[in-house]
Amino acid sequence: MIEVNNLTKSYGNNIILKQISFKIDRGLIYGFLGKNGAGKTTTMNILTGFTRYDSGDIYIDGLKFSENKHHALTASR
Prior knowledge:
single chain; alpha+beta; Rossmann fold; four-stranded antiparallel beta sheet; 2 helices; 4 strands; 38% strand
């Protein structure tokens, strides 16, 4: 399961993600739809650990992502 709560990311004065929240249960497949610049790639880069986020919480299989990044990424396989 992936749970995202109030995720925020800015680059300088540009707010890319503003308190987005969603939950995806194990075994389900979702896609991101939106216009160019909507934050789809930024969200995926955050969830894979390539990009840091400013605030919010991410849980992968119940583990807090910011405290257990390596374990959360490998445990979700």
